[in-house]
Amino acid sequence: MNTIQTTPLHLILIIGGARSGKSAFAERLASKSGRSVAYIATATAGDEEMRERIARHRAARPAAWHTIEEPLDLAAAVQQAATLADVLLLDCITLWLNNLFAQTTMQPENEEKQYTAGALFDEAALQEIEKLLAAAHSLASGKTILIVTNEVGLGIVPAYPLGRLYRDTLGSINQRLAQASDRVYLMVAGMGVDLKRLYEEASL
């Protein structure tokens, strides 16, 4: 009996600092694939500068790409995007987490509750990432998901509790996404280094 060979799901994480070329690199990968593309945008137009940034990004994307604007529900956005295209580009986790914090954590009573309980990261955010990964792995074979995120742990320690909670939560999210990804590109000065090709399990 003949067996059908299926293409495995590919999850690709693209991480780096501000202006390291993450989005441009992800868009190049999507364009070079020659496949249909759906762009999941998490940014919200909170001020004039962000409105201008969003407008520039929209104008730069190919007209044939589908765009889904979803600031919070990543799992639903991935499932919707998968009905439209074979390559899904999610940009970005950093802004998504900011949106989530704006909705749930920026109230003073919530921030105090997080720290009196001794929490090192936001559990609700990590649960949402698990929902995202579950949605990704439920897709039909042949889909590719590119996820863009920031590395924010290389600078100074934030001086205020909410900033530290954000940094630590994003660090935990990035570790989880990297663990689940087939490839992890670290962006430096517009150049991507495939960390999983260089990674070796540590031993003594």
Description of the structure:
With 204 residues, the chain is of the alpha/beta class. The chain has one domain: 3-Layer(aba) Sandwich (Rossmann fold). It is 46% helix and 19% strand. The chain has 8 helices and 7 strands. The protein has a 7-stranded mixed sheet, sandwiched between helices. A hairpin with a 2-residue loop joins strand 6 and strand 7. Helix 3 packs parallel to helix 6 and helix 6 runs parallel beside helix 7. The protein starts with 9 loop residues before the first strand and ends in a 6-residue tail after the last helix. 29% of the residues are buried.
Can you summarize this structure?
The chain has 204 residues and is α/β, with parallel strands linked by helices. The chain has helices at residues 22-32, 48-60, 74-82, 93-104, 108-116, 123-137, 161-180, 195-198; strands at 10-16, 37-41, 66-69, 87-91, 144-150, 183-188, 191-194.
